[in-house]
Structures are given as C-alpha cells and as structure tokens.
C-alpha cells in the first residue's frame, strides 16, 4: 500500500512538474504503436470491411459471366447444378467509357430491375435505386470521379442524372469493378447501374455480357465447386468465366499491398525513433532518478522497491501510450484502408497478433529506455549515488592525441563525443530512421515519375495516391519525432557539456568555436546515420516494391537537408548557451 | 542597516602605486605594457531586476601594477569572485571600465573576449575546473591548442609547465587519478600555458588541505619571483598574507588596501614595535 | 588598565563604582574577578600622576559617598596618545577589546578605524610569518613555531572581522555615501 502511494505521488509529481516530458513520451510511443497497429490491422480491417459489406448486400459466393447473348440456357443449367443455394437473374452488363465532369473513365454498365435480386443487392448509401433514366454509381467509383447524387454521367451518347450511390460486394472495389469486359485482359474500370431497359438502350450494338450471381451451399470453397461441379459440360459452348468471393477479397487487398509495408516498416522505424526519444529523455531523468534512488535507499527501501518505484511511472506511461496507439490505429484503419469507399467502414477490435506486437514493441521501448538506469540506480551504493550521479568516463588517449591535430572546433567536438558514445549511437540511429523513410518516399516518387503516363493516368492513381499519402504521413511523423530527438539530444549534450565547454571558454574558446563543437557532436554521428539510412531505405523499398533508384541529386539533397536541419537544431541551444557570460555559467555549475 | 566602512576612495587605493613609483611596468612583464597590468575604473556589476537588484560589485577602482600579486579578501558574497570574473573578461560589467594590459576590454564582444582570455588571462578556480576526460598534459595543452599553437609546441610547453609544478611524472594521469593539490597544480600549469599577462585565481586553495595549500602558495611565490602578475581571491588570511598587497571587499566595494611587500611597508600605520619576525619573537621576553 | 580607566573618564567625570560597572559589562565573565578596590587603587595612582583630579563628592540616598574623578589636561593627552598608538605585536584580545570599548565610549577614536589599523598590522606580521613558514619545512622546529605564530595571527584576524561586524552594527555613522 505504502509503495503504491509513494509511486503514485512520484508519478503525479513528475507529470505535474514536467508535463512536456510525459507528453513527449506519450506521443512518441503512441505514434509508433499506432503506425504498427495500422500496418498489422490493415489486412484484417479490409477483410472485415469486405465481409460486412458482403453480408449487407447479399454478396455472391461466385459469379458466372457469359458472353452468350441469351443467358437463359446457362441460367437453367446452373439451376440444375448441385451446390447452388440461391441464384439471381442474369444481369446484362456492357463495358463502355463514361464521362462525368469532363473526365472519361472505363466502366461496366449493369442493367438492374427495381425489385431486389436474390443475390447481390447493392446497398444504396445515398439517393435512390435505379429508375428509368436515372443512374446509380458505385461509391468508390463515384468518389474517384467526384460524382454526387444530382450530377450527370454520360453513357454512350446520352446523359443520365445520378439518382443514387451504392456499394456492392459482388465485384472488387474500384478500380477493379469492371467485369463486363468479356474475354481477354481486363482494364481498370468502375461500375454503374441503370435499369435493364436503359442498359440495353445505352449499349446499342455494343456486345455485352451477362452476370449470374450465385450463393453456394458451401460458400467456404467456391473454387472447388467451379472446378469439380461447374464443369465444362455445364458451362455450355459460349465463353463462361467465374469469379469467386475470395478472388474479390484478394483483389481488394491489392489496394493495400504497397501501403502495408510502409506502415509496418514505418511503425518499427517510428518505434526506433521513439526509443531514441525515450533515451534522450532518460538522460534528463537519470540525474533525478539517481538522486531519487539514493534518497529512497537512504530511508531504507530495498533495490526491488527502488526499481519498482522508478519503473512504475515509465510503465504507466507506456501502458497508456500503448492503449492510445492501439485505439488510434484501430480507429484510423478503416479510413486509411478503404478510401475508395467501396466497402462499409468497420472498426473491429485489433486481433491478438496486433495487440501482442504492440505490447511487445512498447515493452522493448520501456525496458530499453528505463530498466537499465533504474536497475543501475537501485544497485549502486547509496553514498555513491548521492554523491556522484556523474557517469564514469572512459579514456581515449589515442583519440585525444589524434584530435590534437584537428581544428579547435572539431577537436572539442570529437572529445565531447568521445565522452558520451551512447549519445552518438542514439543520434546515429535517429538520423538513420528518418533517412530510411525519406529515402523510401523519394524512391516512391521516383517510381511514380518513371511510370509511363498511360499508366499514371486513371485508376492507378487511386492506389499510388494512397501509398503516397501513407508514406508521407509516416515520413512526416518520423521527421517530427526526429526533430524532437535532435533537439532533445543536442539540448542534453549542451547541458552535459556545459561545464566542459564553459571551462573551454574560460581558456579562450570563442562562441563560434563552441557552437561549431556542438554541431560536430551531432553531425559526426548523423553522417553514418544518413550514410546507412539511404541504402537501407532503398533496400526496403526494393524488397517490398519496385527496384528503382531515385536520382542521385535527390538523395544528395535529402541527405544535405537532413544534416543541415540537424546542424541548425544543434546550433540553437549551443548559441543560447554562449549568450551567457562564461562566468555566470561557472557560478551556476559551482552552486 | 548597511555596513559603512571607512571610505577609501579610488584615489587612495591608487595611492600606494603613486607613492612608490618603483612599482609598475618596470617589473618583469613584457615590454610595451604601459601602466598597470589590470585597471578597473568605477567597476559595477548589478544582478537581478527591479526590486531584487544586487550590486555584486559596486564602483570598484583598482590598479594592479605588472608583476604584483594581489589578494582580494572578504566574506563570502562580498562580490570578490564577480570582481575577478569581470577583470578576466568572463563577465561584463554593468558600468565602469576594465583595462587589461593597457587595452579596454569591458565593451568587447564574447568572441573578442575569448581571444583575449586565450592570450592574456590564465584562470585558476577553486574547483580546479579541469576537463575530466583529458589527461593532465592534455589539459595543460588545451589553451595553447586553442590559441593556435602547433600540437608539438603545445606538448612541449605542457611538459615544461608540468615539470615546473612538479608533476612531470603525472602527465598521463586523468584528473580523477590526481589528488586535489595535484589537480590544482595542473590547473595552475594550464593557466600559464599561454604565458598570460595576468593569472586570476578564485579561491585557489579553497578545496585543499594545508599541505596542498602550501604547495600552491609556494608555486605562487615562484610565479611572483618570476614577475607574474597575479590576482587571487581568497577568504583565507594566511593565503592573502603571501601576496604583495591585500584589498578587502565588503558589499561590493573595496574597504581596505594594505601593502605587505617591502616597498609599501611603513607608508601607513607604522608601529613602534618594529618590523620583521624579530618583533614577533620578542613576545618570548 | 590605567589607559582604559582614563579613556572611560574622558567622556564624562565618573566615580569608581560606575567605572567598575562599565568594565564588568564590557568584560563579562572575565570581569568578575575585578573588584572595586583595584579600581580605586588605579584612580589613586592616576591622581598622584596628575592625570585625574577629584572633582566632587556625591552623596547618594543610600550607601557610601562617592568620589567623582575627572581628567586633567595631561590625562586627556595621555588618552589621545594611547588611542593613536598601535597595539603592538604583544597586545592580547582583552586589551584590544577594552580599547575598542573605551574608544567608542569616549568618542576619542573610531573603533572601526582601530580595527582596520590593527588588521593591517596583523596582516603584515602574518605576511612575514607566512613567507618564513613557506620557506621552512613544517616538520622542522622553526617551521613548527612559525606555523603556530601564523595560526595565532590568523585567529586574531578572524576575531577582528567579528569586531568589525559588531562595531559597525553598533555604531552606524552617517559618513560616506551610505554603502560600503
């Protein structure tokens, strides 16, 4: 009970005294977890959305498509085929190019009756269902076209008012919903519904197809049904093709194929950046924690209690941010996963794998950031911790001998760096994470630029846009976190090196030299970070997507921009430091 | 009620110098330095704002002739450390002038001050302020390297100075491996690295035991003999007594100025009891 | 003792009992051994030397009659000379203390000026002792003696600091610009 009270008091004190520190911790970890959750739940969320839409629209288990102008024969044979649980009337559909708002797009135009069909009953999300002279546009397609109820679409030579927007699980989402293209390779396209009469009128002499949506008695394995039961003798002479619901789901998943690695890899990179943030925060905490540990021990707390008390705030914050990240990721998933709007939005609870991964990541972060110092503080002797919270210093005689030949700023910088190798590693890791993401983003844009104009135009944009947005969002989050890290690290360095630099100032180092020395301490580790980040970023992109290399000038500019940002962020606190007369700083040190 | 001390005006503080023209640039300092090595005119340093203004240093006039060792004494908080920092260009005065080697420095920017410290000022602090991560020799080398000396020259100078302070055998030791007295001797060697015009020492023996204090005082004595201008701040009368001249500070102003060296003796309150240790020994009558 | 009594009389004529009271206050427990007889002996000697003169006899309501003494011109001169002269290397704490008390009481000298002068004196002695001490090994006989002398001088100097604080608090003067 006592421990709990004590821990609670310390946490309350920490949060109240340093809300920014707690907030930064919370945001850093939550960001990483949210990104990971998004990546991991993407697939799951998509499946859920599809299944939900399928249930809501009586989606077919399998659809038979025939080019036969009279589908009644096929329909009759299907009715006799075992394993068919329900069968909709054949639907006439043809492939055409429609126009809306001056844009042209491929689409299948389906002729539907007013009465609800046995299988595939599109769910009208706004407006009404088809009526003579009025068209209903599939929601994802409508969104891509920018069409709303009341707008007009031109099919063939005639314009139709859009009377409704609907969704359906019978075909994949836009841009894969055009199933009226008949034999041969299919193009991207959308889906529009008219009345059957209007459809036939609009088609004119254009050959069309007939779609027959089926429900099977064994919906789990439609593939086997089409292979073993729905054999050639039942298909007849005309071209008949089948699409089962798993294919639809697979096609839908293509949408997120490029996005998912961006999110998962981004999640881990964000986690790495968050780790750097926590470590940078930990340095600020260390002195306080050490002192706290010593005081606790002085009043008789054992190492276990001390560790627990020191870790508890960390764990609580980690727990909070994990919950926050999971929730945010889960809630954001449906919006990110289905921006084509072809499916019902769903926010399912995250599956166990996701939760496990998130918790694992959080634990890694918390333990690396906090356990070490806490255990060290708990183990060290009381007098020692009370007296000297400073770290033991390693000697680098050779390094110092070599640096004697360097210009002063470099000399100071290298010696400062040698003082805190851990910081150098942190700075390098943080920079590497950012560079990886920036490289991936650049590569993505390079690929976009390299894509032939034909393919860039039209539906492909939907996919690339989404991936681009995700990449951009993750990169942005990483850059924000890295900026924060650089500020924290350089501020930490400025604080820790204060004494050494002030001494150097009394010996006659100019403010310029001091600022330069600070920059060296951050830039030197950042250099390998950038150097490693670029190939790793390329490698990851190549692994998940296309092996393409952005122009060298892009990469060089990005690398220089990153280094410049770091230099500026580092120079600022150092510059502030040198504003103060050296004497005052020394006085403060002595106090 | 603020303490009011017998008013010693700036003029009278300079009077010692005026009365004994034997002092000053004729000493052993580099030629070309006209006038005192250090001069403060109406030096004032105010901290804080509005209500909580603190006059750490309040209108101090002081001349330190080249080659003189001066001790500034006074209770803690009297402003003596601030005075030293102002004299060494570590802090800038609110008002007044500081002249170092005939050059006015109180209006200089941080960069110019840094260059000046590098060449003309050597600091010794109570807490040594050595760089933990550098060996004794490297600490001593640092000012020379900062001043642009070649690594070889800096190393040679450091070896020479460590020899001089009796630590030649400890050149490769880290400060943490040295005793307090040894650390302070390294600090003195570092202060001398660029052959400064003045050495400023802030409570140089404040952290030392009596044996280590003797070492430092002997070292200062050698510097004095070599004509080094030295200003030290101390609250220890025995340390102050080794200087040529002692000024006491009270509440930011100079309260008293006493010459302890041969030249100054007898110009003030001479007493009938005679001078020299003999007078002390006559206690044993 | 003679000098102290003379100085106390310089402010205003007084009688032996009063003088004793004043000394006992200044000396505290150290003054307990001081009896009235000693004061009268001193006064008699001073009178013989022509430094004081019996001015009148007071007859209080109760108790014995009291002889009131005043300084002569020679006495005045003697006091002034005492105030001006330095305490010398042998002066002990109580003696200098009484001089400060007498100086303040009589207004003949500024106690703070006396403290300053004394400090310079002691500082010079300490300087010599320190220089000699630095030149000698602490373990040598001479070094040991010098160490003792230096420590005593240091102690005296520290006491002077206390004197300065106390007297400046007790006798604020309006001179100077008000700070210092």
TrEMBL record, chain A:
Its main location: membrane. It is a multi-pass membrane protein. InterPro entries: ABC3_permease_C (IPR003838), MacB_PCD (IPR025857), Macrolide_Exporter_MacB (IPR050250). It is found in: Cell membrane. The chain crosses the membrane at residues 20-42, 262-284, 305-333, 353-375, 424-446, 466-489, 523-544, 556-576. Keywords: Cell membrane, Membrane, Transmembrane, Transmembrane helix. The keyword Lyase does not apply. GO terms for molecular function: transmembrane transporter activity. GO terms for cellular component: plasma membrane. Pfam families: FtsX, MacB_PCD. Residues 269-379, 474-576 form the ABC3 transporter permease C-terminal domain. The keyword Methyltransferase does not apply. Residues 26-223 form the MacB-like periplasmic core domain. PANTHER family: ABC TRANSPORTER PERMEASE YTRF (PTHR30572:SF4), MEMBRANE COMPONENT OF TRANSPORTER-RELATED (PTHR30572). Belongs to the ABC-4 integral membrane protein family. This is FtsX-like permease family protein. It comes from Microbispora catharanthi.
UniProtKB/TrEMBL annotation, chain B:
GO terms for molecular function: ATP binding; ATP hydrolysis activity; transmembrane transporter activity. It holds the Pfam family ABC_tran. Keywords: ATP-binding, Nucleotide-binding, Transport. Residues 1-30, 254-277 are annotated as: Disordered. GO terms for cellular component: membrane protein complex; plasma membrane. Residues 256-266 have a biased composition (Basic and acidic residues). Residues 38-276 form the ABC transporter domain. InterPro entries: AAA+_ATPase, ABC_transporter-like_ATP-bd, ABC_transporter-like_CS, ABC_transpr_LolD-like, MacB-like_ATP-bd, P-loop_NTPase. This is ATP-binding cassette domain-containing protein. It comes from Microbispora catharanthi. The lineage of its organism: Bacteria, Bacillati, Actinomycetota, Actinomycetes, Streptosporangiales.
UniProtKB/TrEMBL annotation, chain C:
Gene3D superfamilies: Winged helix-like DNA-binding domain superfamily/Winged helix DNA-binding domain. InterPro entries: Tscrpt_reg_PadR_N, WH-like_DNA-bd_sf, WH_DNA-bd_sf. Residues 5-80 form the Transcription regulator PadR N-terminal domain. Pfam families: PadR. PANTHER family: NEGATIVE TRANSCRIPTION REGULATOR PADR, TRANSCRIPTIONAL REGULATOR YQJI. This is PadR family transcriptional regulator. It comes from Microbispora catharanthi. The lineage of its organism: Bacteria, Bacillati, Actinomycetota, Actinomycetes, Streptosporangiales.
